[in-house]
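Friendly challenge for the regulars: who can give me the structure tokens for this chain first? No prize, just bragging rights.
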Amino acid sequence: MRNADAVSILRIPLLLLLVYAISVRADAAASLVLLAILFVSDAADGYLTFDEKLSMSDFVHYLFEEARLARKRERSRPKTPRYAAFLDIGVDRLIEYALWLTFVLLSVTPWFVLAIVFLRNTIADALVLRKRKAFSEMHTGFGRIASSHVSRGAYAVLKAVNFAYLVLVATAGWPISAGYALTAAVVVFSLFRGVAEIYEATR
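First reply, four minutes later:
Bragging rights claimed.
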């Protein structure tokens, strides 16, 4: 098993632990640490796709390298099994749905947020996977809006900040107003990227 695949699979029990911690309203700091590990491990998964040997200095450089360098590295990445992309997407979706569902059940976010995210992902993923395309294989200008290193990085950061704030709402009683604003920003950004993915998949 590749190191990247092992990281993807190990994220699942970490997710279950995080969901439990949020659900029982455990210590906010502990929940935030688990959330941070979950998101950093997603980046580690991507890094290990390029290099099976995990070097902390190279990993930090990978996180902050410029989009131009990221695209160059994307073109020279080693050949990976087709299932690897599906596994990564599947685990990402599982994490996203589980967290949104947790916040819905705790009455932190409205149910329609989960419905919008689910429908967006289902339609976009189905069309993209039908073409058997990975992010690195998107060629149209509009499609690259979704696939660029900057777009993916900005969305990941925004989503992490949003989930972190919602954790604080659920476990520490922080005001929900900022959470609504962050959630709205995440949903709008997600829909915009989804339209770009669908456009690419229908070309």
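The longest helix spans residues 177-201. Residues 60 and 106 are 35 Å apart (CA to CA). Your move, everyone else.
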